[in-house]
Amino acid sequence: MSPLLRIAAAAAAAGLAAVTAVPGAAAAAPGPATGNGAWSVGPANRSAAPAARPFFSFEAPAGATVRDVVRITNLTEAPISFKVYGTDAYNTPRDAGFALRSAEETSSDVGAWISLKAASPKIPGGKAREIPFTLKVPGNATPGEHIGGIVALNTAVESVQESGGARVGIRRAVGARVYLRVTGPLTPGMRADGLGVARTEPLVPFVRSGRGTVRYTIVNTGNQRISPTARVRATGVFGREVKRWPDRRIPEILPGERTEITLPWDGPPALDRVTVRVELTAAGGIDVRTQTRFTAVPWAALLVLAGTVFVVWSVLPRLIRRWRERAGLTSGETGVFM
């Protein structure tokens, strides 16, 4: 029985607020945390903090060590045994959702730099545990944002599901986000890859509408998060606009990550020379543009028409001749009749 891990992560704020962590015991009041109804994970509030923190946010130079405290609260009445670990964040490929890697996956960035004082706590029902941790920034860490999280995984299998004939154990996890900015210049960047259009043609064009799909991939090539706005439109011959999709704000894409965007297209032109243009803009003056072209020809309908013409010109005369012969409308004689 293989485990299936579900991780919930705290919602990110639009901007990164630099908060310098200081060593010391956390105050009794808990900060806001991400939870699943059974337990929650979040920063422990500090006595000097004016307000609770929604996530961990640090700024430090390469080679520095940051210290802080994570608070895990058991919201049930029964004790829960946890596995607590640091991990890297990534974007889900299809929707750019924020996700944290599971305990079985290897972290190579900020998740690998986190060391927890207690990695296997057992927390009684209705109680909380505050666990100190250190984040040691390597001396060769690159400037910019490094994003991950601290995850509390319930070590017990909570339920079992059938999947493809196999039994799959469900273990849930909750994570608090960690935003680290390593001192140095920020170099935002973005590109669009793989713009393409897929279409299906109706057998009867201009009467029934076809269907299409526009796909492209957004890649964050810089060292900070970006949340671009995408504008997509299609033009035909002489530049006339045949389709414009609503402007779309893409969720935050992490440095080095990518996400694929899919746009449905109802009723693409049946006969036209079409150009599809994508424009991506983001804070910092980023403006990326790409385009692709295709020629829309109703090949299926043309093939049907050609087949019909072939039948008319080759088969139909033979059928008419046979019918005339059977009806006695033809004679084998030739000559001139007066």
Q: What's this, in brief?
A:
The chain is mainly β and 338 residues long. The protein contains 1 helix and 21 strands.
Describe this structure in words.
It contains one helix and 21 strands. The protein is 8% helix and 46% strand. The strands form four sheets. Strands 1, 4, 6, 7, 9, 11, 12 and 13 form an eight-stranded mixed beta sheet that branches. A five-stranded antiparallel beta sheet has the order 2-3-5-10-8, with no helix packed on it. Strands 16, 17, 18, 20 and 21 form a five-stranded antiparallel beta sheet that branches. The protein folds into two domains: 2-182, Immunoglobulins (Immunoglobulin-like), CATH 2.60.40; 190-296, Immunoglobulin-like (Sandwich). It has 338 residues and is mainly beta. The radius of gyration is 32 Å and the shape is elongated.
